[in-house]
Here is the input.
Amino acid sequence: MRGAGVSRTLDLRVDAELRWWRGDEEVVQFAGCTDVDLAFSPSTNTLPIRRLSLEVGQGSDVVAAWVRMPDLSLEKLPQRYTRLSPTRYRYESGGGRFTSEVETDELGLVTRYPPAWVRVSSASR
Here is the structure.
């Protein structure tokens, strides 16, 4: 990440046993987390949406490794996804303090994440 003349990097990875690492240091509080959530992009919401394969009306709780911006700090973030329609999900985090109705395409890729994000395609330009 780069901004205001400052460059920051984060080396974050997860192994086959779902152990998370920042560089060479294990981030033990993320053990067992299956998802990463990058604060700057709703594209990472596609990961649990596709992995969970919820039926309409079903919901599921997950815990993500959340990368916050702009400092790249890490936080464990409980989340809930509820499938409202074939292409719409209710996303909740912070115990319901934040909610959004996320829209996806037929592949489960996020196309709209209110209040501030909409995917722009070359056809709509």
Summary: Residues 63 and 75 are 10 Å apart (CA to CA). The radius of gyration is 16 Å. The mean pLDDT is 91. The helical segments are 46-52.
